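Help: read this over?
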Amino acid sequence: MGKLNVSMLRYLTKEDFRVLTAVEMGMKNHEIVPGSLIASIASLRHGGVHKILKDLSKHRLLSYERGNRCDGYRLTNAGYDYLALKSLASRDVIASFGNQIGTGKESNIYVVGDQEGRQTCLKLHRLGRTCFRKVREKRDYHKNRKHMNWLYLSRISATKEFAYMKALKDRGFPIPTPIDFNRHCIIMDLVQGFPLQNVAEVDDPADLYDKLMNLLLKFAGHGVIHGDFNEFNIMLGDDGKPIIIDFPQMVSTAHPDAKMFFERDVNCIRDFFKRRFEYESEIAPSFDDICRVDALDAEVAASGVTKQMEKDLRLEYGMDEE
């Protein structure tokens, strides 16, 4: 872990960002984007674009690769980060960058600051890290796209998570407050607390157990199942109350396997409490206990998170089969 490397961000010109954006646009339909196409999209002279491409590759914001049909460029993680961070900085959402505070299979977490010096949290979604070759090995399960690339997966993961976070926060759920997002980046409140995984003991395991099980039922009552409800995605605030994080795997209670996902979440909590706190309860919610009071899942779908996007993410997470 360390700081997010943004040393070049302040030195990049408008033309640099036009070229990065052109590569991003080209990657919607190409694994490797030819220099001539980049120049055309960026509306810059080919000779001028060549120098910019060389400089951006030198600073590892782009990668030059030789393909079977042609040579060209693709965005690196850092290049995609810069595009999102530039947009967020231009909206005065981010003004300073701090240390990395968390990492996972699908994301990196950093502390950042806004214009007023208030610390917030930056989450960078990193789906499809294994790059194009690994994605191709899974077969092309996205029938309308020839390239299920990491840009697409990371962007829709952040889009989905922000939409769910906003809907959940509006309904009073104990989650971080979502502030803004762009591409694969989400800005949210910085939670003051610790992951449940790092907590050795609690004053009242039974009370915390009940609160978490009630939260599972409350989620389901609003039409959604967390899908990854475990000690890594539950934090305890300084007041000892649980705060739930990480929502890209959230699914609707209308999903064909909703009962299985719900029971898996329940069993994750039961197993953890038995293992960590030596606490067992005969009482646990079942799928039949759900009392539907809201249609949060429908609201998120209406916000632009399409069924195809949901399906693509579930396939990437291994929650659905092709």
User: Anything to note?
Assistant: The two ends are 35 Å apart (CA to CA). The first helix runs from residue 14 to 26.
